[in-house]
Amino acid sequence: xxxxxxxxxxxxxxxxxxxxxxxxxxxxxxxxxxxxxxxxxxxxxxxxxxxxxxxxxxxxxxxxxxxxxxxxxxxxxxxxxxxxxxxxxxxxxxxxxxxxxxxxxxxxxxxxxxxxxxxxxxxxxxxxxxxxxxxxxxxxxxxxxxxxxxxxxxxxxxxxxxxxxxxxxxxxxxxxxxxxxxxxxxxxxxxxxxxxxxxxxxxxxxxxxxxxxxxxxxxxxxxxxxxxxxxxxxxxxxxxxxxxxxxxxxxxxxxxxxxxxxxxxxxxxxxxxxxxxxxxxxxxxxxxxxxxxxxxxxxxxxxxxxxxxxxxxxxxxxxxxxxxxxxxxxxxxxxxxxxxxxxxxxxxxxxxxxxxxxxxxxxxxxxxxxxxxxx
Length: 375
Hints:
alpha+beta; seven-stranded mixed sheet; 21 strands; 18% helix
């Protein structure tokens, strides 16, 4: 494997996902190369004096990543891949790799980093506008909800639902925080700091590499007054921890995307946004509040996308303090407010807008479903 050629091909279209900067790869102390992604992509051997991101991993693991047999997030969680520098830029690495693996061709116009675009209409929007407005999210116990009822009455209609007492068979749910530290001790995650809520979906957010065990142990410490508390949000569940959770039986196991873990103290906030797939959100510790809005309110909420053809979607409107002068149609939006208790499982269909805040120290696991609603 000629590393310079491999890296040149890997980063040929990196600007298409908004990546710009210098990526330093260190395979061992005497073998290092760097890639500069700007107007032109260049690869050089050695150490760059001012790299934006430094990535350390073995050649064998790198070959596995390129072949699709090794997962970047799994290598990072286990410590076999180390990242330094601008973690926000580093979080684009999985997208760069997936783009190269799919053989995406270079585009004539490079996408500026963190550019916002109008959000396109989705099938969920068209489905939602034809329905009677939902005024309350139904709560059902797991024992009272059969799988075929869920799949026929809630999934096709894109109807949110809270399933209570849903995590009784999860080992992670049944152990104390102190007991769980044993399982977290060997893993690291990425934490968000500073104004991460104000920089939703931006690679400029202050990301840091953090020991999972140290972060969980620090959850009850006081944070700086007026500053958002650190948040370990949207990390892949490390492979060994999968034994401590249970995949919900409401969809085929093969349809689930790798589950994600969210850990943080009271006050962590994810602003109003929406996903592009159905989501089952499990509340393991503590409580979380959700503010929901139906998909067809896309324009009223000032929705924007990270990609011209639709990508991650955030909103200009703050549901806690709507600016009716800028967005007068927000007056017509029905905001639904719910609180998930420990043991609850929320079915959140694709396209539903949601703002999420930790009411107390919280650990959650979510499962995105890769089946699509046909848009």
